[in-house]
Amino acid sequence: MARAQFQKGQKVWVECVGAWAQIEKVQPVWAKGFEEPVRVTYDVGLGREFLGHELLLPSDDPAANAGESWRLMRARNKWQTAEDCPHHPYPGTYPVVVTDKADWGGWRVPGAEYDRDPDQIEFQARLIAAAPRLMALAERLTASVDEAPDDAPPELLMLAREARTVLKSVTDVLSAPPDGAAAAPRESRAA
Prior knowledge:
It is a single chain. By secondary structure, the chain is an alpha+beta fold. It has two domains: 1-59 and 172-185, SH3 type barrels (Roll), CATH 2.30.30; 64-147, no CATH class. The chain has helices at residues 111-116, 118-147, 154-171; strands at residues 11-14, 19-22, 25-29, 39-43, 49-51, 55-59, 71-76, 93-98, 106-107, 173-175. A four-stranded antiparallel beta sheet has the order 2-1-6-10, with no helix packed on it. A hairpin with a 5-residue loop joins β4 and β5. The two termini are 19 Å apart.
């Protein structure tokens, strides 16, 4: 027996197409002698019906609020002394972005990659450490425009729309629906 995993109007990710869609129609397939449908397909307006395993739900990212205390630290370079790399911005060290309350976990680069272009790696480290604050700024911008969209100048509307797109690419996390997420639609059939 099959049960519907999604409901009409629900937003889903269609994995094989690589696009977001909305469930337009839940289509149970009934067989004589069974009280429940034997299969359930979903019409999402993409030209064919999809089975539940081909669709994913957006889900909350449990790590989304973990970025509040990201900070840039410097670690001692074990392979090169300060005298070996005077061309580095901070000779004898490399940047580490710590994303945990304890001083570990986060972003690091291999020494050879840092030595190849230290200025670029330093920039990346500063950008990654600032990412939570930049994300909060984008969220405040979109919330501000959403409060009074008619009063916002066109340039601000465009910036808010772009910020919303960037935020969605960061916050939309996909997951398979839990078993029995929604009850199968019951329809009476005349035999």
